């Protein structure tokens, strides 16, 4: 990621930043200048505590000058001298005369015994330097191991050192860099030649000619992982995994670009790394193996000409930071130091080839095995799911990895996208959001993930530091790629030809600067957003690397107000100009009007003010147009039969299991349902703040006016009946918009929420609970039939379920644990549930016990359906025992629960004594003829209860025969067909028997009609057409 941040330890101390003033010496001979540098290297004061200072007079052979060297005499010297300090003190033939040592303290000089040997000084210096480098390593490790907020979602155990996967690095050459840009094909991006691959550890090995490499240029487009690789390199050195170098000093070129004041190299190092103030004097005076890391060289406008940047070999000489970088690369400053530079491809050619020992190109994850390894390390981290149930979370993580691996193998377009490590990160972040979000409200938004993703890659990035416009990279992308994305959304296409690209990028190019910016964009950024299509027959077209990115950039293009006609653009410019000069004109006219009372001057002044006011009204119309576009795209009727957008995103990453068309085959009609949702998400305060950092400013007034216009369009359209998937999209839109006042007004009009057959993942449950929680009004009906709910889903939705009068939870595989949550729901003092349907759930006997407890204490429930819930006789007996304590239930459905005569009659006996219960459903149970006759004898006026068992009521047709058959027809796909066939045969026999017992022709006709319906249903069942 760009923008490598470095720790700033504060200003360096005087001892670490002040030179010895050696420039004033004019001594002949090259030998002295060399020795002079050696002396300067050991002339710094050490910061060891509680030491006594000694001054050693070094008599240099061939010199008349005696220099003073200050050492700190520690009470306990180090056990052994370090390797690099031994080099410093033994590399030359300098001898230390014994009689030249004296003590300095106070105002008098006290002579002490001379040092026994120069090894004592080496030991003392070793203690200070080794401690300083250890502190430096500890500081760098802490800083570079620190992850941004976006990484915290992957769990507390996530760290760069633990889950890093090195991208492929390919050795390159200047000739390859200077070649024209190749055709962007998948063959050029994947399967790089293995013979040219080089590892990070071998970048400084000798080249093909046997020469030692000192300068390495590591380059690659945006998103290939340059900065992350450098972070890992620093962390490896801190942990001893990069033994080639004894000292690593990283610099952020973005940080250096903000400073213009001259500064010396030594002062610069101690300013950034205060711990090194005792080591800095040794730089250049020994064979210390030092590595300078210059990350993001594109931020510096370097000039390698002698006329542009003077030569500088003195690390104490203050020069601009760019001059320090140039002279380091020239090897004129610290020639023995190694340097690694990271930059974008367009900047590489600015560095003269004679200063580069090796070019290395980062090729990303060109091998799908690297992609799989990255996903496995990211998504299988302990605590990644944030749930207490480690077992289920681990299984879900393994399932995700398996599906993702299969989709990578069969879907070349996804493999092409994950060629960039940045997009692998985006895939992991999106999957984590989809599968492991369980908080209410959700801690993130999908728009926020995409915005943060762009910040990680483009924060602080300028397209071309040499261009006077200094346009931010993201701003340029929003205007150009955003235009292409928007036109694709409007024309419903995802593949773009060369002509399409020229229309968006080149048609308005008029100046040399614009053409240069376009060239830089093609070299550094184009591959990040657009990639060649792998669909057969469309190899020469381009698609967005991640499909959802097209909709995000299209939304950003619209919200930024870039969708303007030529007249609107000219009008805006004129309005800004006139607005700026209107105040000055007002002052001038007021003065003139006092001297020359001309009547036309006030008129002229008012005319000048009319245009900005008129244009502001037109811009208000633009806000209405944005809101209208949002509403039109959000409620498209042709999208009513599609899956909700969250499922669409999930399928695009993991694929669709089971029979399907080829994944690279485009559908007949492209779907862009994320486009309006991203428009709403971009308008949220947090995303606007991040986009402001990227150079894409959305004013508060503009966001307010758009939200105001949306009330007229979006909320009005939402009041129409929406299909379940579209309603889920609308709720997700409100969540992404992050405007609580707007959401409350929108939800206030939703009295009925039908989400049947929508797969309610934990994320969707969190979204529903968060959006519905903005207000406290009661919900007339919440339909969650066949939504794959489980215990955790009910727990998330608990506050919403409390406020629902009619609650449909059929077909959700809710077992005994879920019934425990339902018991707590019904016993809550704020529960208003009056109609609860739990049909076709495996409630069982234990679940029946929880529900029986709920019935005993609940005061709101009037209708309870336990149809086909595997209660059995024992479960039904438990419910019957607790019914007496309930005073409000009016209808109870116990059909299709394998009840026998005893349990059925017991329930009816309890119902007869119940104050309000007047209807019990008992059809499709194992009731004998005797039980049937006993239940037939029940009369409402006498017993106070109706038992719905058969389609007949004595010698007449039951008033509820159509309801019973409708229940059978609706639930047939989920019931045992053979058992249903047997029960229908029994019903038919009962109808025929009752018809023969009646002589009333009208009743006979009714029997024949019902028999006809049952026979028709049996026929369809046998032929498999029902």
TrEMBL record:
<dbReference type="InterPro" id="IPR032675">
    <property type="entry name" value="LRR_dom_sf"/>
</dbReference>
<dbReference type="GO" id="GO:0045087">
    <property type="term" value="P:innate immune response"/>
</dbReference>
<keyword id="KW-0067">ATP-binding</keyword>
<dbReference type="InterPro" id="IPR007111">
    <property type="entry name" value="NACHT_NTPase"/>
</dbReference>
<dbReference type="InterPro" id="IPR027417">
    <property type="entry name" value="P-loop_NTPase"/>
</dbReference>
<comment type="subunit">
    <text>Homohexamer. Interacts with MAVS. Interacts with TUFM.</text>
</comment>
<keyword id="KW-0547">Nucleotide-binding</keyword>
<dbReference type="Pfam" id="PF21402">
    <property type="entry name" value="NLRX1_C"/>
</dbReference>
<keyword id="KW-0472">Membrane</keyword>
<dbReference type="InterPro" id="IPR048900">
    <property type="entry name" value="NLRX1_C"/>
</dbReference>
<keyword id="KW-0399">Innate immunity</keyword>
<feature type="region of interest" description="Disordered">
    <location>
        <begin position="1"/>
        <end position="28"/>
    </location>
</feature>
<comment type="function">
    <text>Participates in antiviral signaling. Acts as a negative regulator of MAVS-mediated antiviral responses, through the inhibition of the virus-induced RLH (RIG-like helicase)-MAVS interaction. Instead, promotes autophagy by interacting with TUFM and subsequently recruiting the autophagy-related proteins ATG5 and ATG12. Also regulates MAVS-dependent NLRP3 inflammasome activation to attenuate apoptosis. Has no inhibitory function on NF-kappa-B signaling pathway, but enhances NF-kappa-B and JUN N-terminal kinase dependent signaling through the production of reactive oxygen species.</text>
</comment>
<dbReference type="GO" id="GO:0005741">
    <property type="term" value="C:mitochondrial outer membrane"/>
</dbReference>
<keyword id="KW-0677">Repeat</keyword>
<keyword id="KW-0945">Host-virus interaction</keyword>
<keyword id="KW-1000">Mitochondrion outer membrane</keyword>
<dbReference type="Pfam" id="PF05729">
    <property type="entry name" value="NACHT"/>
</dbReference>
<dbReference type="GO" id="GO:0005524">
    <property type="term" value="F:ATP binding"/>
</dbReference>
<protein>
    <recommendedName>
        <fullName>NLR family member X1</fullName>
    </recommendedName>
</protein>
<feature type="domain" description="NACHT">
    <location>
        <begin position="214"/>
        <end position="346"/>
    </location>
</feature>
<dbReference type="InterPro" id="IPR051261">
    <property type="entry name" value="NLR"/>
</dbReference>
<keyword id="KW-0496">Mitochondrion</keyword>
<keyword id="KW-0433">Leucine-rich repeat</keyword>
<feature type="compositionally biased region" description="Low complexity">
    <location>
        <begin position="10"/>
        <end position="27"/>
    </location>
</feature>
<keyword id="KW-0809">Transit peptide</keyword>
<keyword id="KW-0391">Immunity</keyword>
């Amino acid at each position: 990621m760009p923008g490598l941040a470095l720790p700033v330890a504060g200003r360096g101390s005087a001892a670490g930043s002040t030179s010895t003033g050696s420039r004033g010496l004019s001594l002949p001979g090259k030998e002295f200048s060399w020795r002079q540098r050696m002396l300067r290297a050991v002339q710094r004061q050490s910061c060891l505590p509680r030491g006594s200072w000694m001054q050693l007079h070094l008599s240099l052979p061939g010199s008349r000058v005696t220099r003073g060297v200050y050492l700190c005499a520690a009470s306990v010297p180090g056990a052994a001298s370090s390797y690099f300090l031994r080099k410093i003190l033994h590399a030359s033939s300098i001898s230390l005369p014994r009689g030249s040592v004296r003590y300095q303290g106070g105002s008098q000089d006290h002579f002490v015994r001379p040092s026994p040997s120069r090894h004592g000084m080496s030991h003392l210096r070793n203690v200070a330097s080794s401690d300083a480098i250890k502190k430096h390593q500890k500081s760098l490790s802490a800083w570079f191991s620190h992850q941004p907020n976006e990484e915290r979602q992957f769990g507390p155990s996530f760290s760069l050192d633990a889950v890093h996967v090195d991208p492929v690095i390919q050795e390159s050459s200047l000739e390859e860099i200077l070649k024209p840009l190749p055709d962007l094909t998948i063959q050029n991006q994947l399967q790089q030649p293995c013979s040219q691959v080089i590892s990070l550890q071998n970048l400084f090995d000798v080249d093909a000619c046997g020469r030692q490499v000192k300068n390495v240029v590591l380059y690659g487009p945006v998103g290939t992982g340059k900065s992350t690789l450098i972070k890992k390199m620093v962390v490896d050195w801190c942990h001893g995994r990069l033994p080639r170098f004894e000292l690593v000093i990283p610099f952020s070129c973005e940080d250096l670009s903000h400073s213009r004041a001259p500064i010396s190299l030594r002062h610069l190092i101690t300013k950034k790394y205060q711990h090194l103030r005792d080591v800095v004097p040794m730089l250049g005076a020994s064979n210390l193996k030092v590595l300078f890391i210059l990350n993001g060289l594109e931020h510096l406008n370097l000039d390698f000409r002698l006329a542009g940047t003077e030569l500088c070999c003195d690390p104490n000489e203050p020069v601009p930071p760019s001059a320090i970088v140039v002279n380091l690369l020239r090897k004129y400053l610290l020639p023995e130091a190694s340097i690694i530079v990271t930059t974008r491809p367009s900047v590489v050619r600015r560095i003269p080839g004679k200063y580069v020992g090796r070019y290395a190109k980062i090729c990303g994850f060109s091998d799908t095995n690297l992609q799989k390894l990255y996903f496995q390390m990211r998504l299988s981290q302990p605590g990644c799911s944030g749930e207490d149930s480690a077992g289920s979370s681990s299984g879900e993580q393994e399932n995700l990895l398996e599906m993702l691996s299969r989709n990578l193998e069969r879907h070349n377009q996804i493999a092409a996208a994950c060629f960039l490590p940045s997009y692998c990160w985006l895939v992991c972040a999106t999957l984590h959001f989809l599968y492991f979000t369980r908080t209410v409200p959700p801690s993130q938004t999908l728009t926020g993930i995409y915005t943060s993703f762009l910040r990680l890659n483009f924060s602080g990035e300028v397209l071309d530091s040499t261009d006077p416009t200094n346009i931010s990279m993201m701003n340029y992308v929003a205007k150009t790629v955003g235009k292409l994305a928007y036109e694709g959304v409007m024309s419903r296409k995802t593949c773009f030809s060369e002509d399409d690209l020229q229309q968006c990028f080149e048609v308005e190019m008029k100046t040399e600067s614009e053409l240069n910016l376009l060239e830089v964009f093609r070299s550094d950024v184009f591959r990040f957003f657009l990639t060649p299509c792998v669909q057969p027959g469309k190899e020469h077209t381009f698609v967005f690397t991640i499909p959802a990115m097209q909709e995000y950039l299209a939304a950003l293009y619209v919200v930024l107000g870039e969708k303007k006609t030529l007249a609107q653009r000219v009008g805006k410019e004129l309005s800004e100009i006139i607005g700026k000069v209107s105040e000055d004109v007002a002052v001038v006219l007021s003065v003139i009007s006092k001297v020359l009372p001309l009547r036309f001057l006030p008129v002229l002044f008012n005319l000048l003010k009319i245009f900005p006011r008129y244009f502001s009204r037109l811009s208000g119309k633009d806000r209405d147009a944005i809101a209208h576009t949002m509403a039109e795209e959000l409620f498209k009727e042709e999208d009513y039969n599609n899956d909700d957008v969250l499922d669409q995103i999930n399928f695009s990453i993991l694929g669709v299991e089971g029979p399907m068309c080829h994944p690279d085959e485009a559908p007949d009609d492209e779907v862009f349902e994320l486009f309006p949702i991203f428009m709403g998400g971009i308008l949220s305060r947090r995303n606007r703040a991040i986009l402001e950092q990227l150079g894409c400013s959305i004013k508060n007034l503009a966001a307010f006016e758009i939200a105001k216009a949306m009330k007229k369009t979006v909320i009005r359209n939402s009041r129409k009946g929406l299909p379940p998937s579209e309603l889920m999209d609308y709720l997700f839109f409100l969540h992404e918009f992050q405007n609580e006042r707007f959401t409350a007004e929108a939800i206030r009009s939703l009295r009925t929420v039908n989400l049947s057959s929508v797969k309610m993942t934990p994320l969707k449950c969190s979204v529903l609970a968060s959006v519905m929680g903005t207000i406290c009004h009661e919900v007339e009906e919440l339909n969650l039939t066949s939504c794959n709910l489980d215990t955790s889903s009910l727990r998330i939705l608990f506050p919403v379920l409390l406020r629902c009068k009619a609650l449909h939870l059929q077909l959700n595989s809710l077992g005994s644990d879920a019934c425990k949550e339902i018991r707590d729901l019904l016993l809550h003092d704020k529960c208003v549930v009056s109609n609860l349907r739990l049909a076709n759930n495996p409630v069982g006997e234990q679940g029946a016990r929880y529900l029986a407890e709920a019935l005993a204490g609940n005061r709101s429930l009037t209708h309870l359906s336990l149809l086909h819930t595997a209660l059995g006789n024992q479960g039904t007996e438990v419910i019957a025992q607790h019914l007496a304590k309930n005073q409000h239930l009016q209808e109870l459905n116990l059909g299709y629960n394998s009840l026998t005569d005893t349990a059925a009659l017991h329930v009816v006996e309890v119902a007869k004594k119940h104050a309000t219960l007047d209807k019990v459903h008992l059809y499709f149970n194992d009731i004998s003829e005797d039980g049937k006759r006993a239940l037939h004898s029940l009369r409402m006026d006498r017993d106070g209860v109706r038992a719905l068992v058969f389609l007949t009521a004595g010698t007449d047709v039951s008033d509820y025969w159509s309801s019973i058959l409708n229940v059978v027809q609706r639930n047939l796909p989920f019931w045992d067909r053979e058992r249903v066939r047997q029960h229908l045969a029994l019903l038919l026999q009962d109808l025929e028997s009752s018809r023969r017992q009646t002589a009333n022709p009208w009743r006979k006709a009714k029997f024949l009609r019902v028999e006809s319906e049952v026979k028709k249903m049996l026929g369809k069942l046998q032929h498999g057409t029902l």
